[in-house]
Amino acid sequence: MADDLRNYKLQLQQVEAALLTDPQNEELLKLKTDLEEVIELTQDLIKTQEGESKIHSSSNDDDVTASLLAAENAAIPGRSISMWHVGEKCLAKWKTDGMFYEASIEEVNASSLKVKFDGYTTLEPVSLNDVKSIGSGTKRPSSGDEGKPTKGYNREYLKKKKQKKQQRFKQIEEERESEKNKWLNFHTKASKKPGIRSKSIFASPDNLEGRVGIGTCGISGRPMTEYTPGEKWKKGSG
User: Where is this region: Disordered (predicted)?
Assistant: First the structure.
C-alpha cells in the first residue's frame, strides 16, 4: 500500500509538470484531480489498516463478546413458558453460532417457542432455555464504553463493521484500476503527438555523443551527469 502511494504521488508530480506547458488541458486537469483523490483515499486506508492492527493485537472482539454473553447467560434465570406472549420482543439463541440476537415471539407452545429474528422472515423453534428477556441483553455499557453497541448487538455490529471495511477496500481497488488505465492512456496519447518521443529517458542514446538520463537534468537541483570516457584496455597491459 505504501508503494502504491509513492507511485501515485510520482504520477501526480509528472502530471503537474506536464500542466506547466499545457495548463488548459482538460484531460490532464481531470487526471490531476483523480490522482489527488486516490492519494487521499489510499492515505485514509493506510490509517484504517494501522488502526485495525492495533485493535486486533490488543483483543479479539468476537472472543470478548462470546465470553461476556456466556457469563451473562449463566447468571440470568429463564422465564416460565406462561410468562411469554406472542408479539413480545426477546433475545433468542441462534443455533449456528450459539449467540443471542433480538427476535420477536411468534408462537408459544407447551414447552417451546417459535421466534422470528429481526431482519429475517422465517420462524425458528427455540427451547425455553434459549430465550430471555430483551432487557437482560441491553444493559447500559460500563463507563468508558458508552459509544460501543450493547452486548446483544455486538455480533451483528462486528459483522456490519467488517462489511463496511470490505466495501472500502473494494472502492480503493476500483480507484487504483481506474487511475492505472487513465495513466496508460495519457502516456499512449502523449507518445503519438508530433515531436514527442515515446522512448524512455533511460534508453540507450541514438548517437555517440548522447547521454543516458539526459532527460533528468535539472530535476531536484541536480545537474546533468557528466560523461568521462575511460582509456581503452589494451591486451597485455597492467
Answer: 131-238
